Amino acid sequence: MGLRLGLETLAARGVGALSRAAGRGGGTTLPGKLLWKIDPAAVDALAARLPAGVALVSGTNGKTTTTAMAARVLGRDHRLAWNRAGANLLSGIASALVAANGAELGLLEVDEAALPEAIERTRPRAVLLTNLFRDQLDRYGELEVVAERWRGAVERLPDETVLVVNADDPVVADLADGRDRAVRFGLDDVRHARPSLQHAADSKYCLRCGAPYVYEAAYVGHLGDYRCDACGHARPQLDVTAVDIDHVGMHGSRFRVVSGHGEIEVDLALPGLYNVYNALAASALALALDTPPASVAGGLEGFSAAFGRFERIPAGGKRIVMLLVKNPAGANEALRTLETGVPPVLVIALNDAIADGRDVSWIWDVDFEPILPHVERVVASGDRAAELGLRLVYGGLATDRLEVVPGLEAALDRGLELVEAGTELVVLPTYTAMLALRGVLAERGLVRPYWERTT
Amino acid sequence: MRIRVGHLYPEYLNIYADRGNIAVLARRAALRGHELEVSPIGLGDAVEPGAHDLLYVGGGQDREQALVAPDLEEKGEAVRAAVDGGAALLAVCGGYQLLGRGYRGRDGSFMPGAGLFPHETVAGDTRMIGDVLLECELTPGSRQQLAGFENHAGRTVLDDGAEPLGRVVYGFGNDGRSGREGCRVARAVGTYLHGPLLPRNPWLADWLLAQALAHATGAHPPALEPLPDDLEREAFRVSASRARDRGGRG
Question: Which of A211, A225, A368, A397 is such that its CA lies 20 to 30 A from the CA of B121?
C-alpha cells in the first residue's frame, strides 16, 4: 500500500468508527463517501490489492440476498471484502474495501446504474448479472436504458473476466452472447411454471425481431424458457441448472444444481422460487470462482436471511416476518409465497423516499388480487398509506377489512395486536419503511443494528 | 347501462400501471349501476368508430412504443372519427404523445402519430420527472385540481389555440416552459400524468364516465351520484403536497 492510500484508508476507517460511536447509523457509507470524495482512484488501488480479485453482483431483484449467499459460500475459504448491508453505490463499495483489512476476495453488490463504473474501477475477475425488471422508473429510467449501459460495460470487460448470467432473462442472457468466458444459469422444472406471463411482465418481445416470445415455462415474471417462433431466438444452452425443485413455499425448498462440476443438493431455508434463482446465481458464481461443489452446498445449507429480506423476528410470543417489496416483480414473488397459506393479517408499508422510488404507480402492477379474498385484515402504512389503501380497495379488498395507519410503529403494533399468540405477523415494507421498522425493533431490543450483525 | 371501453395495446402500453385507471373506471361505473365492458384492441385490430364509448391508451417503454407506433398511425383516422362522433378518450404519457401529429427524435427523424391532438413532441436531452399539480376547468365555471406524477423526455408543444388539459401549478407539464399540461379535444383528454392518474383524481374518472355515458345514450352527460371518496381525497392530498414541496415550476 502506498503511503498516501494508507493514510487515506486509516482516516476513512476512523470516520466509520466515529460515525458508529455517534450513533448515526451503520457508518456503512460515511468512510467510503469520504474516501470517494478525496480520492476516487483509491477504489481502484484497494481493489487491485485483493489477491483473489473481485466479484461483482448486479441486477434488479435479489442482489443483496444473492451476494449474502455467495458470501456464505466464498467466505469459507476466503476473507471477504463484502458490502453486507447493501450499500451498493461506489461510495459503499469504497467503504467495504476500506473496512476489510486483510481481505483476499472482494464480493461486491453493485447498483445497476453504478455497474459500468464499478467494472471500470475494480477490473473484476467475475461479474454476476441476475435479472432486469422495471424498477423505480423515476430513478433508473426504463429497463432498456439500464440494459444499454450494461451492454457498454460488458463490452469493455477484460477477456479473462468470467461473465455469469441468468439465461432465463432474455436481455441479461444476450449480454453473454458470443462470449467465451461465460456461465449461463437457469431453471428446468416445468412443474413450477406460471400458467401465463404476469400482467406487468417485461421483455416480452424478441430482442432480435420484436415478435412475442413463446414460453415453454415462465417461472418468475419474464424469467423462464423462452423461444421466438418468428426468428428462432431462444434461451441459450444452460451451464448451471436447477432441477427437481421441491417444497417451494414459505419455509424453503430443496433442489439440485447440475453443472459440469457435478451435482449439488441444496436445502434452502428461504421461501419461494425467486430464492431458488438467488441460490442458483450464487452457486454459479461460486463455481465460476473454482469453489468445490461440496462447499457450495455447505454454504447454502445454513443460510437464513439477508438484511431485511425475509427475517423472522421474535416479538413477545409472536413472530414478525419481514418481506421487503420494492418493485412489481419482487412484490409479486413475495405475495406468491404467501399464496400457499395466506396469513390472516398483513401489514403493508409504502414509503416514497428516493430509495423507495418517488413514483408509487408500481403498486398497481403488483398482483394483490389473488390473496385479498383470503386475508381478514390489512393494515396499510407508510407515507403513502392512503394510496396503498386505494390500490387494495380497487383490487377487491372490502373497506371494512382495511385499516389505514400511516405511522409505521403504530401500524406494526396494530398488526401485532391483531395476530394471535404463537403465530406470525407478515410485514411487507418498501426499503425505507423496512429500515425504519428495523429501527423500531432495534430500539425494543428485538433485532441487532445491522452493523453489528455477523453473517 | 353498458359502457364499452376499447383499451388500445394493453400488452404493450402498460408501464405506469395503466390498469389502475381501468380498475377505477370499472368500479366507479359499477357503484352507479353501470357495467364497464373492456375489450383489448391490439396490433392489426381495427378501431370501429361508434363501437366504443371510451378509448384508453396507456404509456410504454420506448421499445414497446416504437413497436406500436406505426399501427396507431394507421388507426389514426378511425380514432379521430370516433372522437368526432362523441366518444370519450383518455391517453396517458406515451399514448398522449403517439396521438399527436408526431415525434421528432434527437437525430431529426420524424415518427408520425395518429393526429388526434394538435401537438408535436420533440425529444429532449433531460427527463422531466416528479410530482405535478394542475388546475383544470373542463366544465366552464368548475375548477378542479389534478395530482399526478410525470416522467418524460419528450417536449410536447401545443398548436396555437389548442386547449390544454390544465394549467401547471407545480411541475413541468407539456414542455417545462409553457405552463400548460396535456391536451383536450372534445371528449378526449391526453396527459403526461400517471400515478396512476384516476385513483387519486376521482372527479376526472367521473367526468370521463359521464362523457362515455353521453356517447352511449346520445343524451347529455349525466350527473353521477357522489361517492364517499375519503381515501381518494387523502391520496390526492398527499400527492398534491409532494408536488407543492418541490416548489415552483420544474
Answer: A211
